[in-house]
Amino acid sequence: MTGMGVEAGAHAARARALGVLRVRSRALAIALLPAAAAVILLAGGSSGHLMGPGWDVARGVVSAVAVVVLLAAAVVALVVVRARPAVSPTVAITEKAAPDLYRLVRDLADRLDVPAPSAIALTPDCDSWLEDRTHPAHGPSAPRAGDEIAGTGSGGRLHRRTATAPVLVIGSPFLWWMRVGELRAVLAPVVAGTGPSAHPDIAAARRFVRGLDAAVAVSADGGRCPGVRLVCTGIGWAARLMLRSCQTHATEMERGVAAAAAERAQAVDYGLRIVAQEQVGLAYAGWDRLLTRVALPAWRMGRWPSRLDAGVVAALTELSRRDRLAEGFASRLGERPACDLLEEPGAIDEATSLLAARLFHGGPAESGPEWSPVGWEEYPDEVVDRKWRTDAARLHRVLDALGVRRTPDSRAPRPGSHPDPTAHPSAGPTLARVLDHLTPPPTATPAPETPAGHQPPIRPATTTSPDGHRDGHGDGQQDGHSAGYGDEHPGGSGGFGDFGGFGDEPTTGHGDEDDTLPAPNPRSTALATRLGAELAREEAAAAPPAPATAGQGPDTSLWDNGALPLFPLQPPRTDRELLADHVTAMVCCAAMDTVGATPGLDWLDGPTLLVDGVRVADLAPRVLSLVEDGDATPLRAWLVELGIRPEKPVRLG
Question: What pTM value is reported for the model?
Fold first, then answer.
């Protein structure tokens, strides 16, 4: 195999790699300079040329400085060489677990005339790359007992190959959504990168940069005695100085490697790769939506969906049904999916789903009583129903703490009036209690002036985003905005907290209307503050201790468990968002207990309420009108329309 090739990008990458190595050589030369001066002075003294008291003092001082500098340089070099570089958390796939996938990658490498990757691993993200794991600390360890993924098989042969070729990391959603031909086309530029990576100069430059990066991480680790901390400070300073010196060369080197790989891959499935790139963007949108709208509510309930990769197929199929831009994508499902290249796709899907929960939510490494898997068929009852009833119970506990009485129904007789025989004066946990508390007295807040014949507007629920890019607000309202793929199309919906399936109408956020909207409801503000504090206490009490051992196959020994979650999906929800979520949960509980509504799962919007089998689509703006403005009229009208009785007690979680 030619390996390096004749691409212009490969030669540019090698030139930049030499620039990185020159930084290493200069650092070595600076470390040896005092020793060279000491050798000259000592040689001059022994030959009788540099004699006298001054030269004797100079020889002693320079020799001492040379010894100190050499010792310091040796320590820095030892840390750079021995420090363990960072490795991406992945699920290892052995050749025994996916022989067809290994065969596809090797055939692709043969067509590209580059070395084959040493191993294959999966990551719960929509990306693929090559990762060098040639450091001794990255050697394969013995698999756990009962590990369905690691297996044995060809482990020894893979270990021998790891010394020369990087590991191919593939995004797991690609295997389930893409067809075999599309996956081969997408992997072609990635696999082509093994050619430049095999060049000695590029490999040495990469090892040097990774070593510097690892040394900086080691020096930043605290908790040591003052003497060791001082040494680490010096090591970190030297490593950062060298890292800054070679930063430009390293960046341009990687760009050259990528350009060379892309140029070489043009000869393999070029036309199909153009089509496959469309599937990459679509898979990212579906994966992002699935994590933020569907998986995140389950993770917060202590359950982790065990078939996330299969769920992304269902989500994208639903998107192709709703979105005219995705028409024709579902017709591809008749072709062979790439997950057929795996021997046990269900076991691998479960492993990547658990890893996704750890990376994006910080969940435990293994299943347990408080962290158990949940299937998609169990999701409505095990996640949605429990979530709503738990939130409703928390809301009433906070109301009790605030001293809000469990008042009877609003139709209860007032002093001096005649009793209403149809009233239901229950003192249980009712929706009416929440509505009455969040609705201020008529004299408490003056109503804003509105033109004659106009009603105060209902506060809009969300702002849709057609690109589906993760903006941190897909799970709750942040300044009135929420991102989601396909919201503007028929059947799409905007988000509402954890329950992003209650608003189909594309609306605009209220960021430009703050000057015309009334002041925040003071009762909502007080309740939201107490609710946020209560939830924070519960989360702090339920936080699991750091695990003592790694749990996701052999790869988890290579990354820090204390830094989880590595990639939080969203910023913490605001108190006002939490209140809106809890009021929504209370409304849903009342609907389930009075009119027989049922919890449901929407693949694009997560938990949703079904009334007579029809998805509710207009609840979010009515809840926001109550929470933000203290106006319960739209929500009460909606309750009357569906026959929901707010005065009836509900079952809490």
Answer: 0.76
